[in-house]
C-alpha cells in the first residue's frame, strides 16, 4: 500500500514539473511571437514611410524638371509624332523561328 | 494517613486512586466540538472566498499582473486611381513631461534632450518651469529621435504615440484631398467627405505581463483594432498635374485673381482632375487665407456667359424650332427687348444657328431663346443640373442659382440664354457638358474610382441633337470661330468660350470671368475639360484667348495620357513645342 502511494506521489511530482516547464516554454514562445509581431508592425510602418518617400521623389513637378533641365528632353511637336494603330489581339502565339 | 496505608499495601502507581479520578465526559466533548467548530469556520471562510467573493478577489489578483493595452489603428490612405499615394499617416511620438518630476534633471541631461529635440535649452527650461502638471515638450517627433530620448531614461519625461498625415503631392492636390486636424479629424476635401470610412478604430486586448514588463500571455482580445479603409479616388495624378500646372500658367500669364480647372471622364463620370489656383501646401498650413482654401470649382458660382449658348441651341434643335442651318438675322448686332438692349461684341449679319454658336452671337441666341416659353427653358436648365449641387458628397458644394421660371421677364430669358442671370459652379458646368459628350446623357459624377467602365446617365437630349451641337462646338475652335487657340493637334476638339462680366454688389462690374468648356475627341468623346479664369487683367479677357490655350494643353496632355487614338490628321500646330509638360 505504501509503495503504491509512493508511486502515485512520484507521478504527481513529475506531472507538476511537466506543467511548469510547458507553461514556461509556452510563455517563451509567446514572447517570441510577440516580438515578431512587433517587428511586423515596425516593418509595416517602415513600408508606409518608404511609400511616402517614393511618392515624394516621384512627384510630377520633380520628374518634369529633371526631364527638362537635366536630361534636356522636349515634347515632340505634332510633326514629330507617329501614331501606330492599336495591334489587334494575337489569337495564337507566333511559331518560333518562322520564316 | 489513608494514602500511606494503601501504598503500604502495595498499590501500583497507576492504580493510585488520585489518578483514577474519572474525567467528566462534557470536557472532552467540548474540546472536540470547539475543534469541529474551528474547522467548520475554515470551510465556511474557504467557501466564502472561493465561491461567493471569487469575482472580487480574481479581479484584485488580475490587477497585479493583467493589463488591458490599447492596440492602435491607423487612418486609411488616400490614393489616386493608379494607386499613387496622396495622403499617408505615419506614426510619430509626442514628448511630454511632468514638470514637477523633471525639475531634478541634471543640466547635462537637459542639454542632451534639447539637442535631440532641436530646441534651445532656454526653451526647454521655460516649458519645465511651468506650474502645470502636464506639458508637451514637442509634438510630432520622428520615432528614431524618440527612441534615443527614451534611451536617456530621463525622469519625468514621457512619450506618447500619435500619427502625422503627410501629403506627398502637396499643393497640387490640396483641394481634392483636403487635410486633417488634430486627432485625425478630417477638416477639408476628401479627408472630411470620407471621414467615416478613413477613420481607424483602435482596439484593445488583455494581457499578462511579467515583472520585467514583457507580455507573456494573451488573455483575450477585448476589441480587435480596425484600420481605416483606403480611399481610391477617380483622380489621375498625371492629369491632375497637367490641369494644375497649365491652370497656374494661365492664371499667371493673364495676371488673373484666381482660376479653376476640371477634367471629367465622359464614359464614367469620374472626376479625373480638379485644380484650383490659388492653392496651399497641406503639409504646412500656417498663414492660410480663405482664398487659398477655397475649392472654387465646387464652392464658387459665377455667371457663366456664352458657355451656356449650346444648351439654348440644343433645346431649339430638340423642339424642332430650328435646324442647324436655319438663318437668323443678327444684324445690326443689337436687340432691344422692353427697355433693355443686348448687343454682340462684334456685330454680325445673318448667321446660321451653327454660326451663332461658332461666333458666339448674343443677339442670335436671344432670338432663338425667345421662341420658346420660359418653362421649357427652365426645364432644360434644370435637367442638365443647374440649380442643383453635383452631388459628389464633397463639403461646400453649391447649388448655383436658377430662379423659378414664373418670375422670368423676357429680357431675363434672353440674357439667360447666353449665360447671364444664372450662376453655376465650374463643376456643374463641366457636368452639364457631358450631355454633348455622351449623345444627350447627363452623367452622375464620381469622386472615387468606379469599377465599371461604362456608366449610363439620364437622357436629356436626343443623340442626334447632341451630335449636331458637337459639330457646332468643333466649328468654334476653327480659325473663324471664337477659340482657335483651344485646338489640340492630332485631335478633333470642340468647345465653347465664355466671357462674362462679374456681378459686384448687384451690378455688373468691368471685371471678367473667362472660361472655356470643351469635349474631345469629337468622333467619340472621351473627356470634358472646363477651365475658368477669374479676373484676367493681362490685356486679353476673352475666353478663347485666356482659357483656350490652357484648355488645349490640358486636353491634349490628358488624351495622350489616357492613350486615346488621334482622330484628326496631324497638322502643323501653332502650339509651341517644348512648352507643354511631358
Task: Outline the structure in words.
The complex is a heterodimer of chains A (99) and B (582). Chain A has 99 residues and is mainly α. Helix content of chain A is 68%, strand content 0%. Chain A has 2 helices and no strands. Mean pLDDT of chain A is 84; it is low at 95-99. With 582 residues, chain B is an alpha+beta fold. Chain B has 2 domains: 70-232, Alpha-Beta Complex (Penicillin-binding protein 2a (Domain 2)); 237-281 and 295-562, 3-Layer(aba) Sandwich (Beta-lactamase). In chain B, strands 2, 3, 4, 5 and 8 form a 5-stranded mixed beta sheet that branches. In chain B, strands 10-9-21-20-19 form a 5-stranded antiparallel beta sheet, sandwiched between helices. The relative contact order of chain B is 0.10. Chains A and B meet through helix 1 and helix 2 of A and strand 3, strand 7 and helix 11 of B.
Quick overview:
The complex is a heterodimer of chains A (99) and B (582). Chain A has 99 residues and is mainly alpha-helical.
Query: Which class of the largest domain in chain B in CATH terms?
Result: Alpha Beta
Q: Which parts of chain B are unreliable, with pLDDT below 50 for 5 consecutive residues or more?
A: 571-582
Give the count of helical stretches of chain A. 2
Helix tally of chain B? Answer: 23
Number of strands of chain A: 0
CATH fold title of the largest domain in chain B: Beta-lactamase
Distance between the termini of chain B: 140 Å
Low-confidence stretches of chain A: 95-99
**What gross morphology of chain A would you assign?**
rod-shaped
CATH superfamily of the largest domain in chain B: DD-peptidase/beta-lactamase superfamily
Question: Given the helix and strand composition of chain A, which structural class is it?
Answer: mainly alpha
Count of discrete structural domains of chain B: 2
What is the chain-wise order of helices and strands of chain A? HH
Oligomer designation: heterodimer
Q: Compute the average pLDDT of chain A.
A: 84
Looking at the overall shape, the CATH architecture of the largest domain in chain B is 3-Layer(aba) Sandwich
Sheet-strand content of chain B, in percent, reads 15-25%
Helix content of chain B: 25-40%
Strand content of chain A: under 5%
Largest sheet of chain A: none
Amino acid at each position: 500500500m505504501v509503495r503504491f502511494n509512493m508511486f502515485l506521489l512520484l507521478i504527481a511530482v513529475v506531472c507538476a514539473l511537466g506543467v511548469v516547464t510547458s507553461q514556461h516554454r509556452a510563455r517563451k514562445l509567446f514572447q517570441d511571437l510577440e516580438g515578431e509581431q512587433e517587428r511586423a508592425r515596425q516593418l509595416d510602418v517602415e513600408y508606409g514611410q518608404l511609400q511616402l518617400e517614393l511618392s515624394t521623389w516621384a512627384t510630377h513637378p520633380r520628374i518634369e524638371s529633371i526631364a527638362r533641365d537635366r536630361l534636356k528632353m522636349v515634347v515632340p511637336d505634332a510633326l514629330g509624332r507617329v501614331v501606330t494603330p492599336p495591334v489587334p489581339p494575337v489569337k495564337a502565339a507566333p511559331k518560333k523561328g518562322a520564316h | 494517613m489513608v494514602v500511606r496505608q494503601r501504598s503500604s499495601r502495595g498499590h501500583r502507581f497507576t492504580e493510585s486512586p488520585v489518578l483514577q479520578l474519572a474525567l467528566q465526559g462534557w470536557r472532552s466533548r467540548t474540546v472536540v466540538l470547539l475543534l469541529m467548530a474551528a474547522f467548520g469556520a475554515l470551510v465556511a471562510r474557504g467557501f466564502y472566498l472561493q465561491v461567493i467573493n471569487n469575482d472580487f478577489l480574481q479581479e484584485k489578483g488580475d490587477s497585479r499582473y493583467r493589463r488591458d493595452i490599447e492596440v492602435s489603428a491607423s487612418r486609411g490612405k488616400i490614393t489616386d486611381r493608379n494607386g499613387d499615394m496622396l495622403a499617408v499617416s505615419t506614426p510619430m511620438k509626442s514628448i511630454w513631461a511632468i514638470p514637477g518630476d523633471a525639475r531634478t534633471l541634471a543640466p547635462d541631461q537637459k542639454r542632451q534632450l534639447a539637442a535631440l529635440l532641436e530646441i534651445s535649452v532656454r526653451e526647454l527650461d521655460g516649458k519645465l518651469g511651468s506650474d502645470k502638471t502636464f506639458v508637451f515638450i514637442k509634438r510630432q517627433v520622428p520615432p528614431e529621435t524618440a527612441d534615443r530620448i527614451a534611451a536617456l531614461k530621463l525622469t519625468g519625461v514621457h512619450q506618447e504615440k500619435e500619427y502625422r498625415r503627410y501629403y506627398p503631392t502637396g499643393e497640387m492636390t490640396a483641394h481634392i484631398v483636403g487635410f486633417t486636424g488634430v486627432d485625425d479629424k478630417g477638416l477639408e476635401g476628401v479627408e472630411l467627405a470620407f471621414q467615416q470610412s478613413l477613420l481607424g478604430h483602435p482596439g484593445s486586448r488583455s494581457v499578462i505581463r511579467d515583472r520585467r514588463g514583457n507580455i507573456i500571455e494573451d488573455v483575450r482580445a477585448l476589441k480587435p483594432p480596425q484600420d481605416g479603409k483606403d480611399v481610391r479616388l477617380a483622380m489621375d495624378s498625371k492629369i491632375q498635374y497637367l490641369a494644375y500646372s497649365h491652370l497656374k500658367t494661365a492664371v499667371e500669364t493673364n495676371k488673373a485673381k484666381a482660376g479653376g480647372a476640371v477634367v471629367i471622364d465622359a464614359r464614367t463620370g469620374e472626376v479625373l482632375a480638379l485644380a484650383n489656383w490659388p492653392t496651399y501646401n497641406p503639409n504646412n498650413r500656417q498663414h492660410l487665407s480663405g482664398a487659398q482654401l477655397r475649392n472654387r470649382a465646387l464652392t464658387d458660382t459665377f455667371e457663366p456667359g456664352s458657355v451656356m449658348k449650346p444648351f439654348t441651341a440644343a433645346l431649339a434643335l430638340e423642339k424642332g424650332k430650328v435646324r442647324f442651318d436655319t438663318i437668323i438675322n443678327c444684324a445690326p448686332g443689337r436687340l432691344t427687348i422692353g427697355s433693355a438692349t443686348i448687343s454682340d461684341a462684334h456685330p454680325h449679319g445673318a448667321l446660321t444657328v451653327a454660326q451663332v454658336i461658332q461666333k458666339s452671337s448674343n443677339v442670335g441666341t436671344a432670338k432663338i431663346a425667345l421662341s420658346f416659353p420660359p418653362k421649357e427653358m427652365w426645364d432644360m436648365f434644370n435637367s442638365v443640373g443647374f440649380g442643383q449641387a453635383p452631388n459628389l458628397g464633397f463639403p461646400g458644394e453649391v447649388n448655383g442659382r436658377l430662379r423659378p421660371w414664373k418670375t422670368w421677364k423676357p429680357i431675363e430669358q434672353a440674357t439667360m440664354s447666353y449665360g447671364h442671370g444664372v450662376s453655376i459652379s465650374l463643376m456643374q458646368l463641366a457636368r452639364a457638358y457631358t450631355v454633348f459628350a455622351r449623345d444627350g446623357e447627363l452623367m452622375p459624377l464620381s469622386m472615387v474610382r468606379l469599377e465599371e467602365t461604362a456608366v449610363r446617365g439620364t437622357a436629356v437630349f436626343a443623340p442626334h441633337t447632341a451630335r449636331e451641337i458637337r459639330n457646332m462646338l468643333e466649328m468654334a475652335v476653327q480659325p473663324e470661330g471664337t477659340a482657335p487657340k483651344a485646338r489640340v493637334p492630332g485631335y478633333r476638339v470642340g468647345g465653347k468660350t465664355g466671357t462674362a462680366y462679374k456681378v459686384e454688389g448687384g451690378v455688373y462690374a468691368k471685371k471678367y470671368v473667362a472660361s472655356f468648356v470643351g469635349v474631345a475627341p469629337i468622333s467619340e468623346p472621351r473627356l470634358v475639360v472646363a477651365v475658368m479664369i477669374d479676373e484676367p487683367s493681362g490685356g486679353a479677357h476673352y475666353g478663347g484667348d485666356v482659357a483656350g490655350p490652357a484648355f488645349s494643353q490640358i486636353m491634349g496632355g490628358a488624351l495622350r495620357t489616357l492613350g486615346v487614338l488621334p482622330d484628326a490628321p496631324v497638322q502643323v500646330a501653332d502650339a509651341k513645342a517644348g512648352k507643354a509638360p511631358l
